[in-house]
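monodehydroascorbate reductase (NADH): structure, please.
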Amino acid sequence: MATHDVLLRLYEDDKYAVTKAMVLYLKRHVAPYERPALSKGYLLPEGAARLPGFHTCVGANDELLTIKWYKEQGIELVLGTKVISADVRRKTLLTGTGETISYKTLIIATGARALKLQEFGIQGSDASNICYLRNIDDADKLVNAMKLCPGGNAVVIGGGYIGMECAAALVTNKIRVTMVFPEKHCMGRLFTPKIAEYYENYYTSKGVTFVKGTVLTSFEKDMTGKVTAVILKDGKHLPADMVVVGIGIRANTSLFEGQLVMSMENGGIKVNGQLQTSDSSVYAVGDVAAFPIKLFDGDIRRLEHVDSARRTARHAVASILEPSKTREIDYLPFFYSRVFTLSWQFYGDNVGEVFHFGDFTSSSPRFGAYWVSKGRIAGAFLEGGSRDEYEAISVVVRRKAKVANIEELEIQGLAFAIQESQMEAPDSGLAMVGKPTYAWHATVGVVAAVSIAAIGYWYGRKRRRW
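Here you go.
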């Protein structure tokens, strides 16, 4: 059975609710940290972010949650320890050291793992200069690989979120980049062709080459086993001093398969509006949780983003501490990215008819798109916006703002969101749960283990060695 990290953290309102029974089990030897930094500040050639000073989890009053912080709060932090099995019926967990932990309430935040090329039958994909990016060890390996090939060639496999951010980092480190992916354009799950065209042109101006509509089949290697070229399906050979792979993730559910109800469509653990699984004593949050989205009429989604991890974690804890006062989660899906001098945010769902707006030609762009379904705004994207402008597009999505004149929407553009957001909110039957969380802000109640840990909340525990 696969092994996963186990972490405990508890939040109540805007303060940490700490009990002496809290124990944090982590496979790695560092305190919990925020994953987004790994594809951004961590990969910079100069002044790079490093733990624990940057993007260790941030709590109330902007406190950095270092190892020292946990100790001061009376929380036992057990590093380098794995949970190798779980027995939901008996309410026990077994660690790699042979310790059995009994729990009353368990919060699962096992997150997700990066898909590996081996899973697609690609031989030789264990070479030392093939890199992934999911955790701090991956980031360290990637940084070291970049240092070994200044001015060299990198091939990025995958045109999604990780591929795009890693490609930008590689270019910043003065490495020539070729991106390979099977889709017609980058960020195929989110971007429209028009939006993708802008980013592809921008990346091209930075020296990135795109090879679209194909996949790799094998590698060429030297006598030491390092990759020297990537061989594509059409027979083309791409020179490579290093390879970065970003082809998706899979939720870490194996500890609980056969014990909890899974969401087959979303590949996660199915939970209700309180983030409660099919077992009433077990909750799931973050990348591993498939939960109902009120905005989408209760459709079950599994969202792979730090904002979802933060908010689902807080909601699960509220559900545990004050179940009678905690309503069903009402989450507004949110995604963002920052590369080079660009920065975009997206809210909602990319379904329906698309209407673009703004300037797609400027080197300092401000453009976006609305997705309209059944005469209402279902999703909104904005590049280059201000804080108030991003908040405006989030508001119109949250309200499912009605579009009275489709023909005028593209002409109005961002002004539509600004005007609508300034109007009194109609009674849509959806609870407004505060303003959107901006990803660059230190968020009170952050659970920054978007996919790095499983969270266990013990009212009491029993330890014994097997």
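Notes: The mean pLDDT is 85.
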